[in-house]
Amino acid sequence: MKWLLQLYPAPWRERYGEEFGAVLASQRASPGMVLDVLGGAIDAHLYPQIQNSQPIKGEDTMTLLMFERCSAGGPKLSPRDQRIASLFMILSALVMAVLYIALTKIYHSAPAVQAVGYASFPALCLVYGEAAYLRKRPWLTQVFILVGGLSGMYLFMLAVSVIGGRF
């Protein structure tokens, strides 16, 4: 699995290569792991964050930095970013509620309408995540994640509604 390490840029490998190689060696190979590492390598090439190619010594290792970030609740959001994301989620909830009520009045309890209701809460979580954490990403990335996520979620809930309606 060490060959996966070669997919990363040279400055990244110089800084994190030894530790990441140990992590790769300790993992069992799986398609999911290979795809995850491949995605990380693509991200490292597209959004390089390593300015200094000197390896970090001591306690400032990749794993400790990741643990710090994860234990602190992920990326830091300013109070302003939190308010904007919350407002966006509340407005989306109102739009979804009105949409669900209108569709229920017109189509009653059709599976497609039930799928809208079932997908509401997960969709709001996706909307909040997009508004909070992806604001600084390119707009195409935001659209792809939001539209793709909402579409996939709706199709899943529609399948659940159709299957559930048969029993």
What does this entry look like structurally?
It is a single chain. This protein is mostly helical. It is 73% helix and 0% strand. It is built from six helices and no strands. It has helices at residues 10-26, 31-46, 62-71, 79-107, 111-133, 139-165. The longest helix is centred in the middle third of the chain and has 29 residues, at 79-107. The chain is elongated. It starts with 9 loop residues before the first helix and ends with a helix. The model has no long low-confidence stretch (mean pLDDT 83).
Secondary structure topology:
Blueprint: H1 10-26, H2 31-46, H3 62-71, H4 79-107, H5 111-133, H6 139-165
Helix pairs in contact: 4-5, 5-6
Order of helices and strands: HHHHHH
| Backbone shape | elongated
**Biggest sheet statistics:** none
Distance between the termini: 47 Å
Instruction: Name the beta content range.
Output: under 5%
Instruction: Count up the helices.
Output: 6
Low-confidence stretches: none
Percent in helix: over 70%
Give the strand tally: 0
- Structural class computed from helices and strand pairing: mainly alpha
Q: Evaluate the radius of gyration.
A: 21 Å
Overall mean pLDDT stands at: 83
